[in-house]
Sequence to fold (280 residues):
Amino acid sequence: MNIKKSYDKRTLPCREFDITIGERTLVMGILNVTPDSFSDGGSFNNVSHALNHAIAMVKEGADIIDVGGESTRPGSEEVSEKEEIKRVVPVIQELKRFINKPISIDTYKSGVADAALEAGANIINDVWGFQKDPEIAEVAAHYNVPVILMHNQETTEYNKDIIESIIDFFNVSLEIALKAGVKKEMIILDPGIGFGKTVEQNLEVMKRLDELQILGYPILLGISRKSIIGKTLDLPTHDRLEGTLALNSIGIQMGAEIIRVHDVKENIKIAQMIDAVVRL
Fold:
């Protein structure tokens, strides 16, 4: 079995770093500097704890560290741009001193993205695919950094086939990005497992993940510890590792090039094993 993909292997310039897409599965380590994220809220919401956790993930093999300052779990409260900047910028500044890996900023706010990139971040990871605050596309173009555009919506209602709906959403996001000057080769897509979807819809997207390859962009998959696992297996957040590994195993075989995870060491092992088979 070979991974299905509709683009050539490419090197993404991430400011002072280069990352290669398509050679092996890349692993993005999650660093939530929030008091209320669904899985690890409050665990790393000071600079020292955040730095130690990032260093640990890098030692385990993380290729990218994804810093987020606002919880996106269902029912979470939106924080102000000022508060989000206050949370993420000191952490990014400290990470730049001690780790030698690209840092992505998990935000949909243009002001936060600008402040994070000014502090040294290398990638923008937008859970609203540039559609909540379209000015973030101009920030990305100005700094010439890779972007991750995620599918999202307020409800779980779809008036057509879910994959068709996701593709329609991405086409809007891509238009915003390209019109702002973001280069096509700097774009990565995320189907948004757990966002605007029921458990059944999430499972269907996983089953049909390879259909998104028609757009011709690398896919990032973020399913770590999410409710698709908890509700399917009736498990609490802290006991969802095996379910995460199972879904990431499927996702890699369906064409995911990057997996976004809490448990770096374990996910790297399954990624390396699957790569040894599907990338022959």
About this structure: Residues 163 and 193 are 12 Å apart (CA to CA). Residues 162-180 form the longest helix (19 residues). DSSP finds nine helices and ten strands in the chain.
